[in-house]
Write a structure and sequence with these properties.
Layout lengths: L1 H15 L13 H17 L31 H12 L5 H27 L2 H13 L1 H6 L6 H18 L5 H21 L7 H12 L3 H25 L11 H4 L7 H16 L4 H10 L9 H15 L1 H6 L8 H18 L7 H23 L8 H13 L5 E3 L7 H5 L3 E3 L5 H6 L4 E4 L5 H9 E6 L4 E8 L5
Helix pairs in contact: 1-4, 1-5, 2-3, 3-4, 4-5, 4-7, 5-16, 7-8, 8-10, 9-14, 13-16, 13-17
């Protein structure tokens, strides 16, 4: 029966994540999605060079250094490699749609890992409830179908935890070794994608401590495995250092503006993101109740150590978590677990001598429905196209301009517009003459009232002008006549 219910939850999760799956890449956080998708697209165009990932932005906006080759050194581009290979093998759907579908697949695998982890420590009902919440939370639905490395990172971190659970189980050596190797692989990929997934060493360390205590031989093996899983990340960081122009400035991630522990830090993370976006206000009582439900002997403090790891992540990466809501995707699995614990308690475990079981269950269902409804009220705008003009102008530029042309597509440094042109270039204006010297050939702008546009119209030839955008040839000098 549990397999049928789990499959039904997986089907529900998959169906919900298909919402606007084929929309252009101009929705919420499209700038970061565009940067990720651009690396994949350039793998398709120029070959799969994992050691030299490139995106479309040739400016110095990201790193503060001139970047004429458009290097993009952030996470190791394993997600982009999978994205590009799948698209080349099955080109009947767009690159963007494939990117989202791949993220959906990683999310579904995450759901299964979450179920297996929870079932190991609690019971099947709570495991299914955890999977159910992971499937339906609107915040998680959106960020499970974005073109970002986050869905893959969530999957690898959960795979790392699940593998550890299996290694610590009483299995024969062959099975233990299999999960040991699998855990190292998951950990290595997770660290390569996002180094802050290192915080998950805390719950893993707790599980190992419960099992081994002072068995020094086991701890030596543990630290050796940790070292081997960390080696690829250390190597990648060393390799990245050879291309400083491709490394975005990242010091702000830790404590931008000294925001850590200030009122704004608490507000954005715990009130706005956790309370409003993820839990839709009405999910907060369920989450808090989940925290105070007495843990079973088998789970011990494992889920609390997991939660502490997330809190440590919020503290360490304070700037990044406050500025960008997608950084909180890492917290969703443990939130779902505590929601599941409280829901199970209210629906099945509460004493009927102390409370009205019928009223308790009705209120639990109301909390869940209102949580999803109010969260959806805010998250639904994430799916919208923020500026349809950049999509249409990008299509027009892609149709009219040479394939290898370099363009200036001013959009305040946001690369979303540049991505739509399917060209490499600069997402800012102002230094037009400088960019021309660097190889810029065309100028595309969706703000036709920009004084810069008027100046360029007087100096260069206009290829196309509509009520929403303009395309100018920077190679030809002429006087524009309407």
């Amino acid at each position: 029966m549990k397999k049928i219910v789990l499959i039904a939850i997986l089907f529900l999760a998959f169906t919900l994540r298909l919402y606007r799956i084929n929309f252009p890449l101009a929705d919420w956080h499209s700038w970061r999605q565009a940067d990720t998708a651009a690396v994949s697209r350039n793998f398709v165009k120029y070959g799969l060079d994992l050691l030299h990932p490139r995106f479309d932005d040739l400016s110095n906006v990201a790193s503060g250094k001139e970047n004429p080759e458009g290097y993009r050194f952030v996470e190791f581009p394993i997600y982009n490699a999978i994205h590009a290979l799948v698209y080349k093998l099955f080109p009947f759907w767009s690159l963007e749609m494939w990117g989202r579908l791949i993220s959906v697949l990683f999310s579904l695998i995450s759901l299964v890992f979450l179920f297996l982890i929870v079932e190991n420590f609690l019971n099947t009902q709570i495991a299914l409830l955890s999977a159910f919440f992971f499937a339906i939370l609107p915040f998680n639905i959106y960020y499970s179908r974005v073109i970002l490395p986050e869905p893959m990172m969530v999957m690898t971190t959960l795979g790392m935890i699940y593998s550890t659970v299996k290694v610590l189980g009483d299995y024969e050596l062959r099975i233990t070794n299999f999960y040991l190797i699998l855990g190292i692989i998951f950990a290595a990929i997770s660290f390569l994608l996002k180094p802050y997934s290192l915080v998950f060493v805390l719950p893993i360390f707790y599980l190992c401590w419960r099992k081994w205590r002072f068995n020094y031989l086991k701890w030596i093996i543990f630290f050796l495995c940790f070292f081997f899983s960390l080696l690829p990340f250390l190597w990648w960081r060393w390799w990245m250092s050879h291309y400083p122009e491709g490394i975005p400035v990242y010091s702000w991630l830790f404590n931008e503006g000294g925001i850590r522990f200030k009122g704004a830090w608490f507000y954005w993370l715990f009130a706005d993101r956790l309370g409003r976006l993820i839990l839709g206000y009405w999910g907060l009582p369920l989450f808090v109740l989940g925290l105070i439900v007495k843990p079973t002997r088998k789970e011990g403090l494992f889920f609390y150590s997991w939660l502490m790891a997330i809190l440590a992540y919020f503290v360490i990466i304070a700037g990044g978590n406050v500025r960008h809501d997608y950084y909180q995707v890492l917290a969703v699995p443990i939130i779902c677990i505590f929601l599941a614990k409280s829901t199970y308690f209210l629906l099945f475990a509460i004493s009927k001598e102390s409370y009205s079981q019928i009223l308790t269950r009705i209120l639990a269902v109301i909390c869940i429905l209102f949580m999803v409804a109010f969260s959806w009220y805010y998250v639904r705008d994430f799916f919208n196209i923020n500026n349809s003009a950049i999509v249409e102008a990008g299509k027009s530029a892609d149709r009219l301009l040479p394939a290898e042309a370099k363009v200036i597509a001013p959009y305040g440094g946001d690369t979303s517009f540049l991505y739509q042109t399917n060209r490499r270039g600069w997402p800012i204006g102002i230094e037009i003459e400088k960019f021309i010297d660097l190889g810029a050939q065309y100028y595309v702008n969706v703000n036709i009232n920009d004084p810069e546009v008027k100046w360029l119209m007087e100096k260069y030839c206009v290829i196309q002008k509509t009520a929403q955008w303009i395309i100018i040839d920077l190679r030809k000098h002429c006087i524009f006549q309407e």
